[in-house]
Task: inverse folding
């Protein structure tokens, strides 16, 4: 079989911009909850704990503020989102990227759906090799993926400029062509 040329899938600026705008709006709602007057909260009859509403606001601002910051960082990122080549693939679309994953390490794939989000679980010959210690959150996410799906490598096209079916088709084409050498 012929070796395929390197293919690059770019990040989708439109999708990332949508994430940033949504995150900023939700962080704004969180800020509104933080500064909401205690009397206004108590008059709603439904909520009798202003401290809890303020706490939810703080958590909302922190989480969605971090999402917005990550999205802005990705908007400014000029690197390719995902790279397919003869030796393997490189996923730069998410912060939990796996570096280069050689086709020879892949033994299979499985499509899963979590909260209407389609993902491709990449089954590996030696998954522990991809669990080397990383910074805190990255390590936790990879270990959780490994515990839940027996693989630390889970791919999605959410931030890529390609739909999921085309992404999986391209992935399988490269795996079949380059993985059996």
Result:
């Amino acid at each position: 079989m012929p070796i395929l040329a390197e293919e690059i899938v770019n990040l989708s600026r439109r999708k990332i911009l949508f994430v940033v705008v949504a995150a900023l709006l939700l962080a704004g709602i969180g800020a509104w909850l933080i500064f909401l007057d205690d009397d206004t909260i108590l008059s709603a009859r439904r909520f009798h704990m202003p401290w809890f509403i303020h706490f939810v606001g703080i958590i909302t601002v922190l989480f969605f503020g971090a999402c917005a910051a990550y999205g802005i960082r990705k908007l400014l990122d000029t690197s390719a989102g995902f790279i397919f080549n003869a030796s393997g693939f490189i996923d730069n679309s998410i912060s939990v990227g796996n570096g280069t994953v050689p086709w020879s390490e892949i033994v299979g794939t499985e499509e899963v759906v979590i909260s209407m989000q389609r993902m491709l679980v990449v089954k590996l010959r030696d998954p522990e090799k991809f669990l080397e210690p990383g910074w805190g959150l990255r390590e936790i996410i990879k270990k959780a993926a490994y515990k839940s799906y027996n693989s630390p490598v889970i791919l999605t096209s959410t931030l890529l400029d390609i739909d999921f079916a085309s992404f999986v088709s391209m992935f399988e084409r490269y795996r079949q062509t380059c993985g059996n050498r």
Summary: The helical segments are 13-35, 38-43, 50-76, 136-149, 164-178. The chain has five helices and seven strands. Strands lie at 7-9, 82-84, 88-91, 100-102, 106-114, 117-124, 154-155.
